[in-house]
Here is the input.
Amino acid sequence: MILGIDATNINAGGGVTHLLGLLQASNPQRHGFDEVILWTGNEELREQLTAPWLHIKFDPHFKGSRTYRYIWQLKGLPKETEKCDLLFVPGGLYLGHFRPFVAMSQNLLPFDDSNPNLNPLFSMRNFRMKALKWGQSRTFRSAKGIIFLTAHAKNTILRRIMSFRGQTAVIPHGINGMFFRPTPPQESVIAYDQNRPFRILYVSTIAFYKHQAEVVEAVGALVEQGMPLELIIAGPALYRDAYLNMQNVIARCNRKRRFACYRGTVAHESLVSLYHSADMFIFASSCENLPLILLEAMAASLPIACSQCAPMPEVLKDGGIYFDPESSDSIAGAVRDLILHADKRKSCAEKAHRYAREYSWQRCADETFSFLASCA
Here is the structure.
């Protein structure tokens, strides 16, 4: 059999990480696929993926123009897939006519109607999200199968496309082995002072639903109480309004003592040293499909204060302390609890590390290609 992978709308972030991890760990021939054809405009995928069974068709125009991608799906892809037995759409958006195909859900934002911070009414962002929700809903209804990353994502989306009668599977991503390390010793809070502050790390895209501003307020309140803390925030600022709001809060809270800083975008390979130099991790998102960043922090054996919103408890289980991400008081309470109790930090870090071991790219690849074969 021949498998086609339409990755034309996957250009950065978790989607690229997923395809790299998946295809580098794959043995498609074991599942009946003699050849895999990958269409992409991402240079990282073209440069890092090599295998005798993989044929990459690269077009840089896929990265720059949505219109070009949609026209190509409708006009160009049918000719390209004439010899394919199955099409895999990991980006979750396919409006063409090739059948059968398997879609994958990696973005839950278009289906989250409960969070008012996501999309201000009548904004262009709101329009794009609604258009994406329509396109992905249509894609999922037409698919022979859908791969979800978590049970929460599966339940959320299937409630909204109730007419779907195809096959489904929950197959989480893996974690790059470079993030794993043994659990470091946890020192008492009295071992820290202004010269050696307790370092708290939050890595994520800057967005309202990631609640960076509330995290700064929470840590600032603890600093006001005399705790020697340092807060490091890293991640791309894709939403200007959220970025400006966060910077305003940082400036206000830093007036008495500078404790919070924003590092900007950090290269994926450079994140390891950032994780391994931190004493604790915060993850305050209120909308996720499968948070790779949370998995990386778990692999790094960090004590984690985490959002109580699904699917975080599904992933972290009892390996962290939970809070309401919309309440700075709740965030501060969870952070304080971990800082003051070294034994709890140690227990949470060890459990999180153990749970992270369950997420391997080999398992992801085997289960993905097994599911694809069942749909072919």
Q: What stands out?
A: The longest strand covers residues 35-40. DSSP finds 14 helices and 13 strands in the chain. The chain has two domains: 2-174+360-375, 177-356.
